[in-house]
Amino acid sequence: MVSLLRNQKVRNALLQVLYVGSLAALVLAGIVIARRNLAEQGITSGFDFLYKSTGWDVNFSLLPATANDPYWWFFLIGIINTLFLGSVGLVLATLVGTIVGLARTSSNELAQLLGRTYVDIFRNIPLILQVFFWYAIITHLPTPRAAHEALGMFLTSRGLYVPFPNVGGIAFAAAILAVIAAIALPIWIGRTSRLSQPFGERLGIQLAAAATALTTAAVILALGRLPDLPLLDFPALQGLNLKGGLRIPPEFSALAIAIAIYGGSYIAEIVRGGFKAVGKGQMEAALSLGLSPWRVFTLVRLPLALRAMLPILANQYVWLMKATTMGIAVGFTDFFMIVALTINHSGQTLEAIGILMAGFLAINLSLAAVFNRINKAIALKGNQLRG
Amino acid sequence: MTANSTKPHRPAVRLENLDKYYGTFHALRKVNLSVERGERIVVCGPSGSGKSTMIRCINRLEQHNGGKITVLGTELNDDVANIEGIRREVGMVFQHFNLFPHMTVMENCMIAPMIVRKRPRAEAEATARQYLQKVRIPEQAMKFPGQLSGGQQQRVAIARALCMRPQVMLFDEPTSALDPEMISEVLDVMVTLASEGMTMICVTHEMGFARRVADRVIFMDGGEIVEEAPPEEFFTASRNERTRQFLSQVLGH
Amino acid sequence: MEMVVVAPPAPGRLENLKRRFFATPLQALLSLISLAIMAFIVWKLLDWAVFSAVFTTSGGPEACQAAAGACWSVIAARWRIILFGLYPFEEQWRSALACVAVVVMTALSCIPAFWTGRRIALVWGAGTTLYYLLMKGGVLGLLYVGEEAWGGLALTLFIFITTCLIGFPLAICLALLRRSELPWISRTTGIVIDGVRSLPLISILFTFAIVLPFALPQWLVGDKLYRVIFGSALFFSAYQAEIVRGGMQGVPAGQEEAAMALGMSYWQRIGRILLPQAMRNALPATINQFVISFKETSLVVIVGFFEILASGNAAYGTGEWRFAYVEVYAFIAFIYFVFVFSLSRYGAFLERRMAVGER
Ligand SMILES: Nc1ncnc2c1ncn2[C@@H]1O[C@H](COP(=O)(O)OP(=O)(O)OP(=O)(O)O)[C@@H](O)[C@H]1O
Ligand SMILES: [Mg+2]
Questions:
Q1: Domain ranges, ordered by start, for chain C
Q2: Is C275 on the interface with B (CB under 8 A)?
């Protein structure tokens, strides 16, 4: 027996069985105990509750929602809210980060100082504090009656009111897709056609693509507009409140601003790192070929820096998506807050936690998949390069 | 070490029909070798022929897949106590020194006697000084490995192995990572060690060293021991075609 | 012979300035824009925070609200609740002393002389014990104060140090299991680590605070504070484990082989050879992780703890200081900034120093 225990193979097998077994036992025991405790409170486990109506409402939704809708619909709304806030935050943070990062890499010392101060300040203050701060600022804005107005927009303590087209939901979504295509297509064409193609020809194709997409958007909007209403719906004061237009609630704005500013400070560092990773030799080579500084930047420095940034940027985007869970601090109904509310109201604890994990796993994995594709597509071919 | 000390004949290291696979690659094919106590063996052969693999099996840095390894009378098998016992009695010197960079030379030499052999600090220190003296660098004791030259590092590595007072020493190309002018200072130490009767198995391409100290030279190729002979015979009257080809390459340049 | 030394004419100060900031029209434009932005922000900020600000409590909230600038009187009136929460008023010196103990402990761990496993464990053990005794009392004639009364900065620091204290050893265990040669152990650990890393911290804190009591036997449920600390430590360790593993991958395989050849056992190899070198490799990333973790302790406000953010909300949220939220948040932001900025500067310094040391 003792000699058996001293045997390396026996030991290894035993250790593995013990480790995996005890972990599995721990999880199982937790589930069994939880089911018993929940059953005592009259909660039957299972996913049937997904089809019951919730009895409570959400304060922000891109899809129609009422208290009569079932739980699964609310989970969907939550995921879409998370993705929506995440993408808005992601775009804004990238914008901020690019500007600050470029300032930090510029040859101008004053611009460098400005960028550095920005990063040093906003990176070192917790995101949630920044969310609280912006939320307090927005909710302390004047009431609708005393609101600031500019270009038909109202900035009030109840949120930002902007003009919105009187267009059916689906048509509006389609028009947005067309506008995105108008931006994406020329970039894609620029990427796929090589330099060796004549420049004028490429520009023509790009312009044509953008114009087509934009026209499509306009046509969709014109066809989808609601009859008997003006094309644009302007918010206007009625009694104590503003009516019409689109209201962007303070919860959403506070989160989006905070994520843009905080995330921007991280992305700025990534941008700077990417530019730093481009070898001096490459740039000197390009300059010595007689390329103008601008073309050196767009043809050599930027493409190489982008390749260096992308993997780190991918991690940062995943982090940004997870940061939307701060929504619960100010009452924005993101995916996590829906899960928390579900647990509160229905008591379906285990199922809700399971859905939460599955949801975030799915978000993480799909983001990772997208970035892997991009990474592979733009990776430098071959492995024979030096320095 | 164990019961069969009644047997009159007990070689220090004995490999019988040793087989080793890396995945599907057959790295050692039925290798047989017996090394007597006090014997000095030099192993040579072309790159990838399995020299390192063979001596790394002796102290189980690699696990063999077939055959039998007996070291100092103890069979090397899955028994953990046997493995640790054998490693205590077998010292090894590596091509790339593998000194512990976060410890001083002195600490490198003291750590194993103290924590493996459980020797008191004072004794471990005295042993370390003695062996550093022997490899001729007592004055470097308080330096860190990163502050020494390659040759000095390799001599420290030898001293570190000797501090465990091993009965068998394994050398895996101890000089091939060194600049030419440092090779001789390491070889000198090894020659001294040989003259004191240490059991040694050296993988090396230093043919001068082989001629001077080896009792037997072993030539390996393709995972097999192709030839085994005393040095005079090996260098002058080799029967094997592959050996002669190898020798002409090593000695020719 | 007469030596003729021709020195180039020393550039005047104006010349120098011109070369640095106005070399080309584009540079000049950039400089001017940056300068304008800076001047605007600095002026606005100074005016708000200093020139037009009210510093004394004498006028009361009303006078303060009327002022054009910042109302720092709210800090003067409410700093105790921000720093110490609802800790009994006469005992707050203990809270302050406990915070000092944590700061000293952190400062000591930044000194290389303390970077051995035993010494660092000693410093942290002593610091945490001291903190705990001071805060909790009940011994040495100190009044007993339960955890539910802890709050403010003191609670934030407590959550941070206990997270590290539990999370760090856990991270090393996870990293060792992750790199185990036994496939089932490394694979299972990998799933656990990746699973935790794919979840947002808030969801983990929420699970540990609110959901876990259902899944634990009664005797194991314990205090909510310690459950949340454990959740936060688990999250920390999942990230730190990958950092430690990265550090281990930086240690050449020959190191372990040499240790094996000397007859060292698994734990001797790990403790004496592998970990000391791996931790050194992982040091900059580790400090970065500490920085992130310190910022993230602020999230416990969501599961209902009275740490510095919640006490800040309370400091302006009730009664007459309602208008002074910007000042309160600025104060808390400043406290976080001091801790986080100095720690991350230290990390950057170490990274530079190590990069030089390698050459
Ligand atoms: N860990 C490993 N995994 C797979 N194959 C290996 C491994 N180690 C060695 N081999 C293969 O086993 C064969 C023998 O290797 P070994 O290192 O023993 O050769 P060697 O005689 O020491 O050569 P050299 O003179 O170059 O050191 C080689 O073909 C090598 O590619
Ligand atoms: Mg070899």
A1: 70-358
A2: no
Chosen from C22, C24, C30 to mutate, greatest number of chain A CBs within 10 A: C30
Residue B19 lies in domain: 13-251
* Least reliable range by pLDDT among A100-114, A146-160, C70-84: A146-160
- Residue B115: list chain C partners with CB under 8 A: 264, 268, 272
Measured in whole angstroms, the distance separating CA B177 from the mean position of its chain's CA atoms is 16
% of chain C residues with pLDDT over 90: 35
State the pLDDT at residue A387.
42
Both structure tokens of C215: 């899944």
pLDDT, average across residues A249-274? 93
Q: What is the C-alpha to C-alpha distance for residues A179 and A231, in angstroms, rounded to an integer?
A: 18
Residue A289 forms part of a structural domain: yes
Nearest to B112 among C254, C263, C277 (CB): C263
Helix runs in chain A, H state only: 2-6, 8-40, 71-105, 109-123, 127-139, 169-192, 199-224, 250-277, 280-288, 293-296, 302-323, 327-330, 335-346, 349-378
Same domain, A152 and A175: no
- Which of the listed ranges A351-355, C114-118, C252-256 does the model predict with the highest average pLDDT? C252-256
**pLDDT tens digits, residue range A29-85?**
988 888 888 888 877 777 777 778 777 888 777 777 777 788 888 898 899 889 999
CATH of the domain at A269: 1.10.3720.10
Task: State how far residue C146 is from chain A, nearest Cα, in angstroms.
Answer: 26
**pLDDT tens-place string over residues C40-49:** 999 888 888 8
The answer to whether the beta carbons of residues C194 and C241 sit under 8 Å apart is no
Longest dimension (CA), chain B: 55
- Domain C70-358 indexed as CATH 1.10.3720.10: yes
CATH number of the domain to which B224 belongs: 3.40.50.300
| 3-class DSSP state of A5 | helix
Query: Rounded to two decimals, what is the model's pTM?
Result: 0.87
Residue owning the nearest CA to atom 14 of ligand 1: B50
Could you identify the atom of ligand 1 that is nearest to the CA of residue B56? 18
Query: Do residue A6 and residue B80 have CB atoms under 8 angstroms apart?
Result: yes
Judge whether A178 and A214 are in contact, CB under 8 Å.
yes
- The reply to whether residue B80 touches residue A7, judged by beta carbons under 8 angstroms, is yes
Task: Say if CB C280 and CB C323 are below 8 A apart.
Answer: no
Decide which of B122 and C214 is more confident: B122
Considering only CA atoms, which residue is closest to atom 1 of ligand 1?
B22
Q: Which residue of C has its CA nearest to A137?
A: C326
